[in-house]
Amino acid sequence: MAGIKDVAAEAGVSVATVSRVLNSHPSVSEEARVRVLAAVETLGYRPNAVARSLRTAQTRTLGLVISDVLNPYFTELARFVEEEARALGYSVIIGNADERPELQDHHIRTLIDRRIDGLLVSPADGGSPLMREVALGGTPMVFVDRWIPGIDVPVVRADGTGAVKDLVAHLHGLGHRRLAIIAGPAATTTGNERVEAFRDAMRELGLALPDAYIGQGDFQAASGRLATQRFLALAEPPEVVFAADNLMALGALDAIRARGLRVPDDIALAAFDDIPWFVHTDPPITAIAQPTADLARAAVRALADRIEGRTPQSVTLPARLVVRRSCGGAASNQRSDR
Amino acid sequence: MAGIKDVAAEAGVSVATVSRVLNSHPSVSEEARVRVLAAVETLGYRPNAVARSLRTAQTRTLGLVISDVLNPYFTELARFVEEEARALGYSVIIGNADERPELQDHHIRTLIDRRIDGLLVSPADGGSPLMREVALGGTPMVFVDRWIPGIDVPVVRADGTGAVKDLVAHLHGLGHRRLAIIAGPAATTTGNERVEAFRDAMRELGLALPDAYIGQGDFQAASGRLATQRFLALAEPPEVVFAADNLMALGALDAIRARGLRVPDDIALAAFDDIPWFVHTDPPITAIAQPTADLARAAVRALADRIEGRTPQSVTLPARLVVRRSCGGAASNQRSDR
DNA sequence: ATCATCCGTGTAATCGATTCCATGGCTCTG
DNA sequence: CAGAGCCATGGAATCGATTACACGGATGAT
Fold first, then answer.
1. A335 in a structural domain
2. Lower Cβ count inside 10 Å, N or C end of chain A?
């Protein structure tokens, strides 16, 4: 593969001049420029990004570590992150932690070794020593969706409290009183916040959230299934199950079906995170939608700000309730999404 | 950040010795080894992968260019590709082409510039000049799922002909005679092959596939919706719609619902590509499942073979039919997947 | 005892770019 | 017309690793 030296030889100039042309440095004569460009063209020269990175100490690459690529919410997030990063001239390397802290650490380490310019993380746990070290070590970093208290890094996330309040009011209005929730891992912020928001919203309406109505999940479908089986086995099962993410909602749906029950007639179901498939399930599922694209864009911009010496800002955007048929009532096939 | 020189100084040896220890070169005294390791530990030294790559001319990174990350089939593929690559000591950079050839070219170019060791591609089109050039240029490359005729590169894919035949027999057995298909883009191999397999299977049963029953899609939901609307507007609409991928099936489901029809009573539906969500749609959708994990593993291994000087092999694995309720008949909620 | 081998180690070249500094020619100014 | 300043350019240092080569000392064979 042709190098800068070959181009210099072909154009009859020095490598310094070639480099200047390629980086549009002002001090280059028009004649040299055209000669270099012609040489680049005939040789099909492409600069070696590895060599350039070594010298300039920047890779124009961002690392994105997410907890589960198979979760459509994160897939979508990743897609928009890449889009915005590309617009800003960065590439993205995605690391899938699969909700496993040690895998998360593995990815963070390789990304750092590769000298990525910045790191976007949705932590799978409450904070590995490594993550703290990296943040303190000066690597530009931004948390997205989830964050870790005590690590001083900008956070870009959605605030679901308003939407959860709307949801609880909606359920209350439909006559439901016994509401249960499948929580996410206690080690994640989203795992806790959603339960708290739910509990608060219920309290405001004078409803209690007994411990038996709090299932412990891990953001995976199987845990949603299990938690729901427990709910259904209670002497007084809940009238509504609210899953803290979309995969657990699917597990819940499974468990309900397996029990021979029907949604929403026998039991209602709602989920945090709206995904396209919820329109097509039986029945379509009422969900809380996050502004995924905006979150992704804001996160990338915050990270780019940090990298390029500007002051990054934490961003919190509101989530909103999308009512479908899974909780009963008249709300029908409305095109409330997209 | 500490460099190899700092480690050498700390350990009281030369950089060469440090490098030897780190690369487990045999000619190092036990004493030097422990001293270097200790120095590495106290300094928290991590080798700079960029510098190493420049010198060794390998990045231990694979590029994966897929046509649509939001398509669960490709998401899953990407996830298993990363898993296998990691097991083999490679990182993966994913490029999402969004079914747009120019975006695909962009990703290929940046990946080449970054000197990835090999490229895994599921081409979005019939073959850009760039792709041909890269393949000819000696970059190790493997096609996965889709491929480009005329480019001599190993192909790892699923063969759906058997499963399609099973599907058509299943439909025929249920009494369906007017079968329609929503095809993928003609520029993709999967777009054509699936139609051909369908047509052949029908012919064997003495059925014709009229042009009006071939919808042109682009593997996106919207195109499935459109094609289905056309089918339903025909004087004699089909009894079955078979979508060549999962997103178009979803679009078809939308169109059928919008028309006020019911699946499978009014019209049957089946899809190529099985995804977890198909279990939860209304009704669960009969689909042709690809062995995604095996495909991903085979593709990565073929690429690693090529990179490491062994002879890579093309691999074709059979897809299989998973019967659910969307085509009618007795096939019920069976757990036929996973 | 002598010479060849081998082993552990260090010095320096190398990968392919960017960039500091020196240089020579030119223009501008006083 | 001389000195200052600027511009285009090239030579060489540099980034942080790997590795070819040289070298001295120890070991083994004859």
1. no
2. C
